[in-house]
Model the fold of this input.
Amino acid sequence: MPSETLQSSRSEVALPLHGGCACGGVRYTLRSAPIALFACHCTLCQRQSGSAFGQSLRVRRADLDVQGEIVTRTRVTERGTGSESVFCPGCGGRIYNMRPDTDFCHLRGGTLDDTSWLRPAAHIWTQHAQPWFTPPADTLVETGQPASLDAIVQHWQATKAPRFR
Ligand SMILES: [Zn+2]
Ligand SMILES: [Zn+2]
Done:
């Protein structure tokens, strides 16, 4: 597909973005454009979502305002780094997770009020993907954890991100 066609078919999305948990006890506002969106097929994402994969929207934590009571749970990953998951204590819904030593967090894509523009740039941990899953054309595929997210960030912004205004 010529890149001009791709560009013109991209939707416009107004900032700030809004979202929250299922019960409404936690609401958030994201004041800057997200950085990337990818789908993770690891067994933990399958377990936590109760579904085939998780959708991670990478955003700047400093630009995310969270309202309402939250619960934070820390887990040590296989690589030995801490990972914090933030939940609503009312409904148990997971809002985002982050490594405390970074400036970014990963919002659960499905917690956005408007999910219509979510187009993952990559599918990672596909070695654990459900057997019926076929990655869509023009997405990056990693069988495990990518060493860096740089290529995913670049691909999302070049081909999958809407125009934020
Ligand atoms: Zn809730
Ligand atoms: Zn995962």
